[in-house]
Amino acid sequence: MMRILILNWKDSAHPLAGGAEVYTERVAADLAQRGHAVTLFVAAVEGRAGREAVDGYDVVRQGGRFGVYRQARRFWKTEGDGRFDVVLDVCNTRPFLSPRYVHSVPVVALIFQVAREVWKYEMPSPVALAGRYVFEPHWLRSYRNVPVLTISESSAASLADYGIHDSAVLSIGADPSDRPVVDKATSPTVVFLGRLSSNKRPDEAIAAFGVLRAVRPDARLWVMGDGPMRAVLEADPPPGVEILGHVPWDERQRRLAESNVLVATSVREGWGLNVSEAAAVGTPSIGYAVDGLRDSVVSSGGHLVDPVPAAAGRALLDFFDGRLTLTPRVSTVEWSVVGGEVEQALTGAIQSFRPT
């Protein structure tokens, strides 16, 4: 049995939780089911306990958006050192930098993606420039001498640019779910599924849809997701566009299965779980040819285009006119497979570790 501490800046109870939290928590649950003692350290969430048991593992919530990193160091000093056998450091833009203060046990990093271009979309210009060219390279240097896991070949290549070589690429897990028994929409129906934030570029998905709508006036676009851009998008949606926000799971799956095609317009992804989820219910994807989506769209039987709305719009026209044929295919595995891969990495790190 291993005693595992996982550091991640948020959990699924956090209002900003996303795909990284789904991945991390499914792995935590599987490791716990395998008999390991797992603790997940994350930021505090209003209305949620500072400590509680979830799916067989313990959750510790301390600190805010930025204070969580300082609290993690303090937690290790006061409660962690001597109580864990290995640390799984999940890096999400700003990392915990645990290799700087965890010396008695091995650290394994799980880095879904580097931020790189995302800085430009999410931060004011001076901060974005500093983040991309100063902070991120400086932070990632701390992980050059520890085992690193990631989730796509694109992310592995990006990490190599920062001096992190030989990162191991994990499989993409998915919860088993029955495909909704619904017919495909008879009118051209496009879906966007993701956080409504600048780096996901939902506005460009809408612009791409506009190219289709100009030729096919019966076309419609369902935008599912929530985020800081929602109010702007809801204020004046173009004809045929429905901003649905967050929808219940059953409705989400039904609309995803009923749609003819998903459009993915992110700046970059670690993978692009929305693409895999669409393929699992029989819906192919048209996505920008950017890191992460290059992996998920191709693996799922979709089509890549230049990262501009006009190119995505032309691909939508080709798809609905029959010039582009797409056959979705499942590219995910059961979470137990992913848990086994992580377990093997953690075990290997313990076996090869030499205290400093």
Characterize the structure shown.
With 356 residues, the protein is α/β, with parallel strands linked by helices. It is 38% helix and 17% strand. It is built from 12 helices and 14 strands. The strands form 2 sheets. Strands 3-4-2-1-5-6-7-8 form an 8-stranded mixed sheet, sandwiched between helices. The chain has a 6-stranded parallel sheet with strand order 11-10-9-12-13-14, sandwiched between helices. Strand 1, helix 1 and strand 2 form a beta-alpha-beta unit. Helix 1 (19-33) crosses helix 12 (335-352). It is globular, with a radius of gyration of 21 Å.
State the main characteristics.
356 residues, alpha/beta, eight-stranded mixed β-sheet, six-stranded parallel β-sheet, 14 strands, 38% helix, globular
Q: Name the structural class.
A: alpha/beta
Helix content: 25-40%
Helix-strand pattern, N to C? EHEEEHEEHHEHEEHEHEHEHEHEHH
Major pleated sheet: 8 strands, mixed
Number of helices: 12
Backbone shape: globular
The mean pLDDT is 93
Q: How many β-strand runs?
A: 14
> Rg from C-alpha positions?
21 Å
Query: Unreliable segments (pLDDT under 50, ≥5 consecutive)?
Result: none
Main sheet: which strands, in order across?
3-4-2-1-5-6-7-8
Strand content: 15-25%
Our measurement of the CA-to-CA distance between the termini, rounded to an integer number of angstroms, reads 23 Å
